[in-house]
Description:
Elements lengths: L1 E6 L4 H14 L3 E7 L19 E5 L5 H10 L4 E4 L6 H6 L1 H23 L11 E7 L24 H20 L3 E6 L1 E3 L8 H11 L3 E4 L5 E6 H14 L5 E4 L4 E3 H15 L15 E4 L14 H6 L8 H14 L1 H7 L3 H10 L3
Parallel strand pairs: 1-2, 1-4, 2-3, 4-5, 5-6, 6-10, 7-9, 8-12
Antiparallel strand pairs: 9-11
Amino acid sequence: MKTYLVTGGAGFIGSNYIHYLFKKYDDSIKIINVDKLTYAGNLENLKSIENRENYKFIRADICDHEVINKIFELNEIQRVVHFAAESHVDRSIKNPEIFIQTNVLGTLVMLEAAKAAWKLSDGTFKADHKFLHVSTDEVYGSLEENAAYFYETTPYAPHNPYSASKASSNMLVKSYMDTYQFPANITNCSNNYGPYQFPEKLIPLIINNALQGKQLPVYGDGENIRDWLYVRDHCKAIDMVQEKGDLFEIYNIGGHNEKQNIQIIHIIIKILREIMQDQDPRKKNIDENLITYVTDRKSHDRRYAISPDKIKAEVGWYPETIFEQGIKKTIVWFLEHEDWLKNVTSGEYQRYYEEMYSAR
């Protein structure tokens, strides 16, 4: 039985990845989920699998080297998939230190623990043991609207503390691959959307606000462009890189699905009005009048667009979910899980939301 250590497995992409693994491999694998359970980590995301004998949750901080080392000592871990990270740009602008702590130091702790556990006496590493570091297209900075795409060879040019911390962690992983021949890969992915996404990110934020009849905040002119990928397609890509990717390689994961932020908002409004029941009193209030332009984010990157050519050619992955299908599935999921949405938007999130948007 192959054992996976998934960090940040209670978060949005991490929890979707764990569901994906169990659906694909069922009882032939064991998963250890390590998560600090900060505001964006939610064990409700994993309620349907929490009692599986081949699943274990450990609440821990990836910066705690004693705990992380102990996990490796007590378990024969063959796969590490490292999601755990602070990930919201606005939060990084307000409090950069925690992003450096978690994203850089935490990654170093994970690398050192895996290296110590997997290293053989001759300096090589155990066969079929792999570390995958999950990162973002934001490390590449911002593209001009008429430029091509981000490629694996594109120089890093981060413009905010979040993307700088992820670029730093990428470079750390690369240094371990180069210096120690440590068995790892790095993936950089475009914007994800889908079930369990915490509603500080654009798509669930707009869905949640629209359902509550709240204003739909749009940074600047709303014409910033992002490349969108359905989260389950990302999960499949990660699994394929772990099993088929060449060691020491970096793979970009993108959907060739560019949309302006304001386009996303109009699409969400349209789909909500199409699928909500006429007797739902909220439906009549969901329209473009809710759109509110707010002061732009500092150093707001204008466009991200990532080429998946390398992962298609070398690994055989391609995005399967077209945006029109994926966004509808996502909105239906949130409508069917409004209790989940209500639970995660209480308390700290409300204070954060007011702080981020009320003064803009």
